Amino acid sequence: xxxxxxxxDSMSAQQLSVVLGGRAVVDAVDAELRGGRLTAILGPNGAGxxxxxxxxxxxxxxxxxALSWAGEDWFATSRRDRARVAALVEQDVSAELPLTVRMAVxxxxxxxxxxxxxxxxxxxxxxxxxxxxxxxxxFAHRQISTLSGGERQRAHLARAxxxxxxxxxxxxxxxxxxxxxxxxxxxxxxxxxxxxxxxxVAALHDLNLAVAFADxxxxxxxGRVRASGPPAEVLTPDLILRVWHVAATVLTHPxxxxxxxxxxxxxxxxx
Length: 271
Ligand SMILES: Nc1ncnc2c1ncn2[C@@H]1O[C@H](COP(=O)(O)OP(=O)(O)OP(=O)(O)O)[C@@H](O)[C@H]1O
Description:
It comes from Marisediminicola antarctica. One of its GO terms (molecular function) is ATP hydrolysis activity. The chain is built from 10 helices and 12 strands. The protein is of the alpha/beta class. The chain has a single domain (4-263), classed as P-loop containing nucleotide triphosphate hydrolases (Rossmann fold), CATH 3.40.50. Strand 11 and strand 12 form a beta hairpin. Helix 5 packs antiparallel against helix 6 (149-162). It is globular. The relative contact order is 0.16. Adenosine-5'-triphosphate binds at residues 20-21, 25, 43, 45-51.
């Protein structure tokens, strides 16, 4: 038996399929999303990344396959129990309610019993820390609808952090963000994975960010897993050509020694 302090919870997907419009947009996916690790879900537009993430978050149900968290059937638990475990930041969330940033971040506390009885001092502390971590303290009293795309993205991240999840799911978290905000956001969630044992799963388009921050990558193409493993091992020029149809070169950074992927200009416009 594993002592609690050393237990690393993880989500395990087996032969998971999602059917939309009569087509398997996620097709027999096997994946192990382990606590303490940042897993990047990679793949071209339409590969099935968002569809997979919504199922992992417990929002959509798979057409077939098994999904478990800490060994328990994920869909056998209640919606509220799932919300205590998993937080999702979707891409381009619109249709904002008329809420200030702080009120929106506070919504992250709703799955916790303490909050429903009226926010406790601890709830307030968690909300303040989440806003500070996501860099939105300065916008606390602004209406969320008035924020720029990047500011709003960070407010949604703060809401997810306030949820204190064990599984943090981020759909293109660097969308809209400037270079500094991209790096600080990924460094923050990477650090949460390391320090708190969180399982962090992020759909990313930038392969260099995946190399720099992810411990593990899952490459999807037309709903199927084409490769998975440590990013520097998986993201070879051959794999990038087969999946993204772009010729790439992997260089070695002259100072850090880390791999850096460069891309050739494609010969055609769209496939
Ligand atoms: N409601 C729907 N009905 C039919 N097909 C859908 C529906 N929603 C998504 N799809 C299709 O499912 C496929 C996977 O979409 P998904 O959004 O999961 O891809 P993605 O990898 O996240 O793409 P992107 O990188 O462009 O965000 C796409 O071909 C998309 O057109």
